[in-house]
Amino acid sequence: MKKVTIYAILAAVLSITASSCTKESMSYLNLSVNSYTFGFAGDDTLEVTVSSSESEWTATPGNNLVSVEKTGKDVAVITMLPNETSEYVTSEVVFKAGGIEKKLYIDQRPKSYRGISKDFQIYTRGAMSRNGKWIAYMTNEHEAWLIDTETGEETALEEPPYPGSSSSHYNGFSCISDDARYIVFDHDGNAITTMTIDGEVHEIKVPDGYKKGSVESMSADGSIWVGHVMKEGAVGYWPCRWINGEPEILDRPEYQIDGVTPTFAGCLARGCSDDGSVIYGSEWDAMLLVYWKNGKLFNIGEETGEIIPGENYAAINGLTMYATNTNISPDGKYIATEYKMRKGSTTMPAIVNTQTGQYQTLSSEQNCISTTVGPDGTVFGTLSAMQGYVFDFENGTSIALEDWVKQEYGITIGSGRTVNRISNDGKVLFGYRMQSSGGFQPQYPIWYMRVK
User: Model-level pTM?
Assistant: First the structure.
């Protein structure tokens, strides 16, 4: 029997009434995690530990498919009956204490669910191989794991030493090769990565006169890596490609978008095609898109960008690229991006065809972030924070991710999910899902599904 422990924290605080300066005891309720997905068989046991200033609290199921048993002073054990239907079952458990209530949202997969899937319940960061077989992820406790999505089996990975520090840790993964021999640990925000090959730490070489090599993506077989380095005695980044471990600096734009001001922040390679022949990246002064084909630079962000008279570079219109490394199709034909109207702070989903050098936008959709693109040019992204969407540029339409999954695979999934990578055969989806913590900030654990 599977057993998952989730802590629901109900805390009481003292509030000072401004008008009378008398202290009143006010109860309020926070749920550190307030959603969970049960398997169809009914063999999940979910333990919710309750901490409250109140002497009594209750937990009431939303329907007769859900059972709640209070054990001891601060634990509620939740189970569900088997789901023999072809649809997801949704319900809730209402916790009450001190006149305040919070809901634990639950759903359950149907028996007809085809494949293997997992919704992680704690904040995790991970990466999936291009063929969809492997997912590497790390927990907040710095536990690193490798999932075989064909079997669901998980294997512990040893976290390599953090450069220059015995107390610091990595917080996720940048990329992983199709055979899982090459894995890149990374520390988001610090541009620090460590490569392991067959479990052994491998030094990331840099060209003479450069430093701080950081790998962000790799070809399917792990023979080509892309990322960036810094130059000794200089400011900014230089895009870099490694072939069989040997680095070479890629061309970067010499000037910023005005064609006069020299590049300052530099340029970073972010992702590449399966064979490594097409690479895309970020021109870091104005966050504009660039790409390379067989080593040749195409500065499409500058070509399509527009400076608004009287405004600074923060108000540039154009095709943008930030720090995501999964925005390219397997063959390198398509790059998923956004066209940002900087002054109006709105974005439209966009796709670049690297074979023609042309791009398209969906002007009807705004405030979008593109996350990845499939072999056929189907773009995945988000609208309204963590609401996943799928964009069809050929027909000029968009559809919510859960509706697209139902349409393509006949499977019902919960909302609030994104797809950050789709396997080359379309059978494995990997991404993040929004999970309310009941506190000040939601959590974004990973999820995946493999369709048989």
Answer: 0.78
**347 near 288, Cβ under 8 Å?**
no
Query: What domains lie within the chain, and their CATH numbers?
Result: 2-108 (2.60.40.10)
DSSP string, 31-86: -S--EEEE-TTS-EEEEEEEE-SSS--EEEESSTTEEEEEETTTEEEEEE----SS
Q: What is the distance between the alpha carbons of residues 434 and 385, in angstroms, rounded to a whole number? A: 9
For residue 59, give every residue at least 6 positions away whose Cβ sits within 8 Å of its Cβ, in sequence order, or none: 48, 50, 68, 70, 76, 78, 93, 94, 95, 96
Q: What are phi and psi of 151, to 5 degrees?
A: -120, -20
Could you give the maximum distance between any two Cα atoms of the chain, in Å?
Answer: 73
What is the pLDDT confidence band of residue 451, given thresholds at 50, 70 and 90?
Answer: confident
Nearest one of 387, 347, 343 to 367, comparing CA atoms: 347
Amino acid at 95: F
- The tokens describing 314, both together, are 């923060």
As a whole number, mean pLDDT of residues 404-423 equals 87
Q: Is 64 left (phi over 0), alpha (psi -120 to 50) or beta?
A: alpha
Residue that the structure tokens 């007769």 belong to? 64
| Residues in the chain, overall count | 452
For the chain, the first-to-last Cα distance in angstroms comes to: 24
Is residue 411 very low, low, confident or very high in pLDDT (cuts 50, 70, 90)? confident
Residue at 192: amino acid letter: I
